[in-house]
Inverse folding.
């Protein structure tokens, strides 16, 4: 029986997955610009890090849409968001905020923070029934633990 939970997991998983897939596609198509952004943010080895990030977003985003290895894909994308927060969001918000309230409102409204929360929720909840993990028995392996 289909539940509202499965439908919401599908909507969340597919929406976030498509967003990352499209983002990764754009970054992979223009690697020099993305590497320059990484260099400006002070990320070590910007050429390598930007290439890995672009392909991770592309591949893991597609896996998330399909619901294939969905928990792993969500966790991997959560790592990219943690990196974005550490290298880009946090320094920007710290530099622009003059009060604790200003800092909190800017930080918690950042898309990277909100995506991190959704990705962690998907990694914990799993992909739901409308995912390739279900018929392949992958999700059942996570649930046996």
């Amino acid at each position: 029986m289909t539940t509202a939970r499965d439908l919401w997991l599908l909507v969340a998983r597919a929406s976030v997955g498509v967003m990352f897939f499209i983002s990764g596609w754009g970054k992979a198509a223009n690697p020099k610009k993305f590497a320059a952004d990484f260099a400006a943010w002070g990320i070590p080895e910007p050429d390598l890090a930007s290439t890995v990030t672009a392909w991770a977003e592309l591949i893991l985003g597609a896996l998330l849409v399909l619901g294939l290895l969905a928990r792993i894909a969500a966790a991997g994308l959560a790592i990219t968001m943690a990196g974005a927060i550490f290298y880009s969001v946090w320094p920007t918000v710290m530099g622009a905020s003059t009060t604790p309230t200003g800092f909190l409102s800017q930080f918690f409204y950042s898309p990277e923070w909100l995506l991190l929360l959704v990705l962690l929720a998907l990694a914990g909840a799993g992909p739901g029934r409308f995912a390739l993990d279900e018929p392949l028995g992958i999700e059942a392996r996570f649930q046996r633990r």
